[in-house]
Write a structure and sequence with these properties.
- This is Probable membrane transporter protein.
- It is a multi-pass membrane protein.
- InterPro entries: TM_pro_TauE-like, TSUP.
- By secondary structure, the chain is mostly helical.
- It has one domain (3-249).
- 80% of the residues lie in helices and 0% in strands.
- It is built from 11 helices and no strands.
- The chain has helices at 3-22, 27-36, 41-62, 75-94, 98-117, 119-125, 131-151, 156-166, 172-197, 202-223, 228-249.
- Helix 4 packs parallel to helix 7, helix 5 runs antiparallel to helix 11 (228-249) and helix 8 crosses helix 9.
Amino acid sequence: MTPADWVLLGGAATLAGTLNAVAGGGSFLTLPALAMVGVPLVSANATGTAALLPGYVAGAWALRKELSGPMSPSLLRMGVLSVLGGAAGAALLLSTSNSAFGRIVPWLLLAATLLFACGPRLLRRGRPAADARRDRGADIGIVAIAIYGGYFNGGLGILLLAALSALGHTDLSRMNGIKNFVSVILTLMAVAIYAASGAIAWTHALWMAAGATAGGYFGGAMARRLPPAVVRGFVVLTGLAMTIAFFIKSH
C-alpha cells in the first residue's frame, strides 16, 4: 500500500459515508476503491461492508424512537429473518470465487444503480396487500432482501423501503427506522461470518470506517443543502461509471 492508496481509500470512504447519510450508494465507491488497491473482489466486498457498518449502527441509533409501538411484521420477527438472510448471503459470497464474483459484480452494480435511480418511483407505487398474502410476502421478501444484503450491499436501503411501502407503511421516518434496524442486523451477521472466515482486510476496513464515520458526521450537513435530485444524480452517474469500468475489466 502506497500513501496514494491510503488517500484513495480514505477519500472514497469519506465520500461514501456522506452519500449514505444523505441518499445511500456508498458501496458504489468503497468496492471499486478496494479493488483498485489490489484487494481481491470477494474480500473487497466483505471489507467494504465492514467499513460501512458503523454508519448503519449510527443511523439505527438516531432513529431508535421510531421503532416503538406495534408493527407488522414484528421487530423481533424481522430481526430473526434478517439474521437468517444475512447469514445465507454471506455464506453465498464466501462460496463464490473471485473470478466468478468478478463476472457477477458488473451486473450487480448495474442492477443496484438502476434500482437506486428508480427508487422514488418504486416507493410511490408501493401498495399494501391483503393481510394473509402480506404476511407471507413479508417473510419471503425480508429474507430475500437480507440474502441480497449479505451478498452485496448496493441498493439495500431502496429495496427495504420499497418492501415496507408495499406492506402498507406510509410514515417515512418510521420506515427509515425499520430499514436501518434491518440493515444493522443483517450486516452485523454478515460481517461476523466474513470475519470468522478471514475475508476482511482489517487494516483497510478500520481506516475506511474512520473515513466513512467522518464523512457521515461532517459531510452530511453540507450535502443536505444540495437538492436531493443533484445528490441522487451524482450517485447514479457514479454507479454507471463503476459499472462500465467493471464490465470493461471483466472482458
